[in-house]
Amino acid sequence: MNTLKELKSMQGRSFLKEADFTPAQIKALIDFSIKLKAEKQQTGKVTKYLHDKDLILLFQKTSTRTRLSFELGGDDLGANTAYIDPTSSQFGKKESVADSARVFGELADGIEYRGFSQKNMEIMAEHAGVPVWNGLSNEWHPTQMIADFMTIKENFGHLKGLTLTFVGDGRNNMANSLLVTGSMLGVNVHIVAPNSLQPDSKIQKLAANFAKKSGAQLVITSNIETGVKNSNIIYTDVWVSMGKTNWQERIKLLSPYQVNMKMMQATGTPDEQLIFMHCLPAFHDGNISTAAEAVKKYNLKSPEMEVTDEVFKSKFGRQFSEAGNRKHSIMAIMAATLGDLTLYTEH
Predict the structure, then answer these.
(1) Is 237 annotated as contributing to ligand binding?
(2) Could you say which architecture CATH assigns to the domain 163-231+233-268+275-315?
């Protein structure tokens, strides 16, 4: 694969969801992420692909990893960044998405947008006239995917033929993105979730179309034993998505799907071929206020929810290297779509 050719094909484009790109382009972003990480580790700096670019970072939802990755990554690449938090602008209140997009496009060269509706992402990209990067929406989390599959490739040396099993809320943005992106890359993706929380039929159909071309095998099931068998990656996420408050309902519904050591062993996969991943934050102990409040309010036996502390802190855990890879992958996305690729070298 000619990585530079694929990167150049993304110049000037927005990054709103994975399916907007080809499998070759997604693979190029993963490889570029690994290259940028190696460059930083070896030299202490990276090529200034975004020299003198101005970036607006627009957050309707709070963030840790996404915000830091865009701010620190933009700085590493030579850009100037301006952060707008959920309360410090007229966006969405006195000014429409379309009008804001036009203003942002006049002021900056690129826009990161973390919000709610995917429709608003599309409107932002339509009217801004500059690349827009989806930092998270209710439907998709594309920047997370480049970091995730980068992490998997670092661990296994390849992607095609591996089996990734997502356990939990199969209708959330992470499940959607993992199912579609994995199917694009030839990764077998299993979604293990209660029947009421399995992916929308449109998402399943989209993934199935990619899987026909890549050879990926997709499984959607409520049966834990069937779903986790032969997995190389067990992946989970919080049970209650950002902005939701239905804790009691989700705890009751998803408690059987908690990732614990019994589940890891049920994969039947040798330890050296098995990892655990989580996009964070995670409810694995009582050291966060939300978990402590949930234990008290819902009379829970333990603050451990989607994953036990034992698994989280075990040799299988890759969640912190995964978190660190957010920066390198977001840098790759920004550089590919907005950067000066004449600076790119193969070495």
Answers:
(1) yes
(2) 3-Layer(aba) Sandwich (3.40)
Percent of the chain with pLDDT over 90: 87
281 is in an annotated binding site: no
CB atoms within 10 A of CB 212: 10
CATH 3.40.50.1370 at 3-140+326-343, yes or no: yes
Say what the pLDDT of residue 245 is. Answer: 73
Say whether 162 counts as a known binding-site residue. Answer: no
- 280 among the known binding-site residues? yes
Q: Is the dihedral of CA 146, 147, 153, 159 positive or negative?
A: negative
Residue 64 annotated as binding site: yes
Give the predicted TM-score (pTM) of the model: 0.96
**Residues of CATH 3.40.50.1370 domain(s) within the chain?**
3-140+326-343, 163-231+233-268+275-315
Task: Name residues whose C-beta falls within 8 Å of residue 106's C-beta, 6 or more positions apart in sequence.
Answer: none
